[in-house]
Model the fold of this input.
Amino acid sequence: MPLRPSFSEEIAGLLHATHANPIKTCIQCGTCSGSCPVAKFMDYSPRKIIAMINADLKDRILNCNTYWYCASCYYCTVRCPRGIDIAELMYALKRYSIWKNQYKEGLVGPVFSETFVKTIIKSGRSYEPVLATSYLFTFGLQEMLMEAQTATNLMLKGRIPVLPPRIKRLENFKKVIQKIIPLGKPE
Amino acid sequence: MKKYAYFPGCSLEKMANSYHVSALETSKILGVELKELDDWNCCGATAYFHVDELLAHTLCARNLAIAEKEKLDLVAPCSGCYKNMYFASDHLKKDPDLAEHINNALQEDNLHFTGNIKVQHLIDVFVNDVGLNEIKSKVTQPLQNLRIAPYYGCQILRPKKDSEDVEQPRFFEDLIASIGATPVDFPLKLRCCGGALIITSRTTALSMVRNLLQNAINSGADVIATACPLCQVNLECYQKQVNQEFGTNLSIPIMYFTQLIGLAFGIPAKKLGVGTELVSAQPVLTYAEK
Ligand code: SF4
Ligand code: SF4
Done:
């Protein structure tokens, strides 16, 4: 029987289209966590999450907020003494969790990302109000009011478009996407 | 006159229109032609890379291929767009199989990626292609005594590309000095604004914004200069929420570097999109009206 890759091997291999990530070489120095502006809001710091991947603690990782809280600032990446691309690793974990359709309850990140992708596939460009709507449905009342306040102020300053932007060669654009991911006939 | 394929990106269409108009106004004076990339599509922001890497690279590759068709280097004013397209180009060049896969799809739009153009951030074009001496020579209203905090944020510099200094860069300070203003020592200049966390993890992002605002104000800055629409929106449009959340009373205008350069060139504020901000830039204007 062929060996199944372990969780840590899967995650290491998910990085970049071009090469895998040397996460096994992590020396647990903590430089990444020390450079991370979000570490204190994460269930497990970047250093810890790497140790957990290497220990194959898949379920705990799939149920934590760490990678969804990563802001992709790449501070960890440029400083890691072992050349581990931690920021891209966080992306890989997000994709893994979307792929497995498993994430910690209450996170907005996955819904937001999926809505965003749908918007772009449909129109070729992103459109703030659609994104705001997905946001409004997922958040609590107070955040909703806060968002509405900002949105109204921006609208008054002419900074939110009224009509969603579209690219010109939308049909071609959809065909390109279809060649990458067969989605059935374009709508 | 050097010509570039200009990729405004989704935020510049409306949300960051002041960046767009000020970029165009100032480059005109500097003899740089920014020709909008024909029929560009969204670069995928960060969200796309969360879902599917291949598709994300395809989105970027389509834009790169359009620029190639016009034989122009691609310039993006948004740090996120810049980073995505720079690295998509880099990955595709290093991985011919990936490039072939994507090129096969791009055929549907009569496009082909070969990777023979450069991808640059707008501030790189200003600082390195145009040059600070040239910028200085066009200044008619030096912004004397205006104290500006240079906010680099993340993705202009990170991830690291070649030999650039990602720990102690100086080019933003030098740019500020070239228009007669004073760059302040802003310790958190490379710290993240929270990016898309402002939508997905609100409290976290607000606390990040708060730290940056506080740090810039403590550094004695009159205004924070940015080179990214996401940074600008996070730092400016959420000041009220930050104050509500943390019981603070922070207030500081956040302007694009192109707006500040424009003022120093004597371009009327209105033409630079001043007036559409939520935190008034009026105090800054007085420095340009001498
Ligand atoms: S900086 Fe690199 S080596 Fe150090 S703990 Fe983080 S991932 Fe491991
Ligand atoms: S890229 Fe993510 S994990 Fe790395 S320092 Fe930035 S926020 Fe933290």
